[in-house]
TrEMBL record:
InterPro entries xrefs: Acyl-CoA_dehydrogenase-like (IPR052904), AcylCo_DH-like_C (IPR036250)
Signal peptide residues on this chain, from the entry's feature table: none
PANTHER family xref list: ACD11 DEHYDROGENASE, ACYL-COA DEHYDROGENASE
Protein name: Acyl-CoA dehydrogenase
Organism listed in the record: Aspergillus sclerotialis
Gene3D superfamilies for this protein: Butyryl-CoA Dehydrogenase, subunit A, domain 3
Organism phylogeny: Eukaryota, Fungi, Dikarya, Ascomycota, Pezizomycotina
Amino acid sequence: MGTKELPTAELELKDMRAHMINSEGRGIATISSLLNISSSHNWTSAVACFRRALSIAKCFAKARSTLNQSLCLILMHMRLLAGLEVKHRGALHLCFFSASLLSFVDNCFPKDIPQTYAPLPRPGNEGEVIFRATTAVTKAVVYESDEPEFNILRLYRDAAVTPIWEGTTNILASDLVRHLIKGNNLDIFKTWLDRTIQIVIGSVGAAFPTTLRSAWAAIYQRLDYNRSNLAATLADGRHIIFSLAWIVAGILLIRDAERDGDEVAMEIASRWVLGGRDGVGEFALAEVVHASKHSRHQNDAERTNWDCRVVWDVDLPKDPVVTGYRTGTASKL
């Protein structure tokens, strides 16, 4: 079944009556509305599994101590948790943004959109193109983010079923690339994204839109140059899908931070867009990662304190000092 074999059942059809529901080769397109609904359940479940696993890991960190020091405040462990918090926040915004587009495309777009609302595409063809592209990048991010190293068997089993139903990351990337370079879809997507980046100015300063524009220009140039060379574009499919996910999620994170001026939300948006390390930057195109490595003027002490605020929502305690290594004793090595 699907792209990963799952030996749960075997179905054999012999001499059965069947009826064509559309022209040959258009079966998936005909039932796509049902698949979209099922997909929304899948990506929501994946994000929920990610959140639950991360919460369990944080509870364990609070209860565990090593070298007479609390694991929850050991800097290396806290930075790992902070990175996962940033990745989850981006995945969560993609999840709900895609769910809202599903509702609007299937029904109708709202007439009066609040100023702080997420940047919606226009109804019609633009909405259809953006919805399909956005759902693809959402799936790539949320399914990649199901961290197996948490070793929580039930969550792992629940999350592992999504590639069977949705397809592997390669399948999602292939579908996205084919969709974008088909007809004028890339130009439609560019129109929406250019308009969306333009509104990301507000109180966040020039660094955010400048970085987003540079990254998007690199992605668009790559796709536009290879419009007629599908094989070459597909070869970069995984990097392209995560690069687009990085841009769309970055925009959503910035809009969320602008909405109420929350400091932690702004720090997460900064780490995602300007940091070059958090989020899904490790999977993006090299040009995108380079564009995102914007100087933030943040020293080690400031970053460590922000790690603590992102993970535990409090400033890093100054006493006792947690080092994460033995102090006051000779090394055993």
